[in-house]
Each structure stands twice: as structure tokens, then as C-alpha cells.
Amino acid sequence: MMRAKDAEPQSIEDHILSTRSPGAPQTRQQTKSLPTATLLEPAQSGTLYFVVTTIDSRGRLADRSPLRVLGWTPDCTITITALGRAVIVVTRSAGPDAVTRQGHLRLPAPIRHVCRLNTGARLLVAASLDRDLLAVYPGSSVEASLLAYHETLRHRDAR
């Protein structure tokens, strides 16, 4: 019998596991060919570039590839703002911040504190080529987004 607290998944992992058939074995099945993913929706050819990176004690993001994709060079002036727990970075000719001389994006301490970004945190960085901006999301925001996405799938499939 399922307890009330078990009725709703508690995390993205719980939710994904809850979509399995009740009697499905937990072990991997042997197949003769490579498994293929079933696409739920058509793939979109967006203009976003994604990378997962870490942040160091000085606020620098380890992966510089999003800046290169956007064409942001060292000493390029930028404006960095917090939007909830996300960080939004745009280029501005008179921006108060800049890409470091080594080509790193450095998030100032006040932004890191507001967004609760700690040293070593894994972050999802999305560079928008169309809008010439960069968005930085902490893992907790990514997890919440994935959980919401899987919830919508669950409700859609229940109809």
C-alpha cells in the first residue's frame, strides 16, 4: 500500500523512477543492439549554446567556451545582474564589469551571495547567440526545471 507521502515524487530521480512500470525489474536488460532514445517532442534547432562548468573561489567560471561562442573578448564590458537564483550577463558599452584579461567570466561576490553560489558549484551556462546574452543557473534551478517538465509530461500522459 502506498503511503500519502509516497504519492508524489520527492525529487527528479524519484519522479523518473516512478514512471517505470510497477513490476519492471530494476536491472538492465541485455540487448543485441544499441538502445535508442524515444523522442517525446521534435528537436528544435535553437540558438542556445549550453555548457556545465564550475565556479572557483574568486567567482570565475572554469569554462570559457560560452564567451568565445558569443565573441566576447577579454576586457569586454558587461553588466551582471541576478534574477532570482539565475545570473544574467549582457554586453554593455559602459557596463560596470568586464571579462577578465584571461577571458574568464567572473561573477562578483554580491551576485554570488544573492544567488547562493559557492566555490565548486556546478552551473549550467546558456549563451544566447540571438540575444547576445549569457544566463547562469545553479544546479538546484536546473533540477526544479526538470522536475516541472517531467510533471507536465506525467499530467499530459494521464489524460
Specify the biggest β-sheet.
6 strands, antiparallel
What is the fold-level CATH name, i.e. the topology of the domain at 48-141?
Chemotaxis protein chec
Q: Structural class, from secondary structure content?
A: alpha+beta
- Summed up, the helix count is 4
The count of strands amounts to: 6
Could you characterize the architecture of this molecule?
The protein has 159 residues and is of the alpha+beta class. It has a domain at 48-141: Chemotaxis protein chec (3-Layer(aba) Sandwich), CATH 3.40.1550.20. The chain has helices spanning 12-18, 65-70, 109-114, 139-158; strands spanning 48-54, 77-83, 86-91, 97-98, 122-128, 133-138. The protein has a six-stranded antiparallel sheet with strand order 1-5-6-3-2-4. The radius of gyration is 20 Å and the shape is globular.
Record keyword descriptors for this entry.
alpha+beta, 159 residues, Chemotaxis protein chec, 25% helix, globular
